[in-house]
Amino acid sequence: MSIFDLQLETERLILRPPRAEDFDDFLRFCSDPEVMQHLGGVQAPSQAWRSFSCLVGSWHLYGFSMFSVIEKSSGEWVGRMGPWQPLDWPGTQVGWSIRRESWGKGYAPEAAVASMDWAFDTLGWEEIIHTIDAANENSKVVARKLGSSLLRMGELPPPHAGKPIEIWGQSRQQWQQRRATQR
Fold first, then answer.
1. Mean of the pLDDT values across residues 86-101?
2. Which secondary structure element, helix H or strand E, spans residue 6, and what is its range?
3. Counting beta carbons within 10 angstroms of the beta carbon of residue 139, is it exposed (0 to 12), middle (13 to 18) or buried (19 or more)?
4. With contact defined as beta carbons under 8 Å apart, do 160 and 176 qualify?
5. pLDDT-based confidence at residue 35 (cuts at 50, 70, 90)
6. Is the Cα torsion angle 27, 32, 34, 38 positive or negative in sign?
7. What is the distance between the alpha carbons of residues 97 and 26, in angstroms, rounded to a whole number?
């Protein structure tokens, strides 16, 4: 089985590795100033292509990366979500970014739960973090819904170096305890 056969499902979403046909939606996502406000800013098409290719390449090289999030009812690409750990990153992250048209539907926490289950169960991670811009209140709401809390302040590697970032997260044990009470 190829890594590109991998698919996680939630009630309303499909999470799968990105495919070439996702790029146009990813490009629109990267060109939206409101979406990219806390993600390093709008990306030119060439930058978005490199970012997209980086996600796909990470799947090939390391067996994990952010998933494309697909809305089951429409088949539309609604965002990127999942495990992420670039070189010099401050920890093993599950991150989320949803296109603006899909904000407020609860997709980020729904997909994050599936991603975190997969990262803990399949990748064997002991801790999951979420790097959040201090001004990004919406992402803090999602982190709290997941049971994560502010762990520490940190910094991302270049090209984002020099800007403090909040590092939210939780341990495998905390996640398992929380999930056991939800079932």
1. 91
2. none
3. buried
4. no
5. low
6. positive
7. 11
What is the gyration radius of the CA atoms in the chain, in angstroms? 15
Give the Cα-Cα-Cα angle 91, 94, 98 (nearest 5 degrees): 140
Q: Give the lowest-confidence range in 70-84, 98-112, 165-179.
A: 98-112
Alpha-carbon gap, residue 81 to 96, rounded angstroms? 4
pLDDT at 134 over 80: yes
Amino acid letter, residue 49: W
Amino acid type, 94: V
Q: How far apart are CA 74 and CA 40, in angstroms?
A: 29
- Which residues lie closer than 8 Å to 152 by C-beta, 6 or more apart? 167
Strand partners, 71: 13
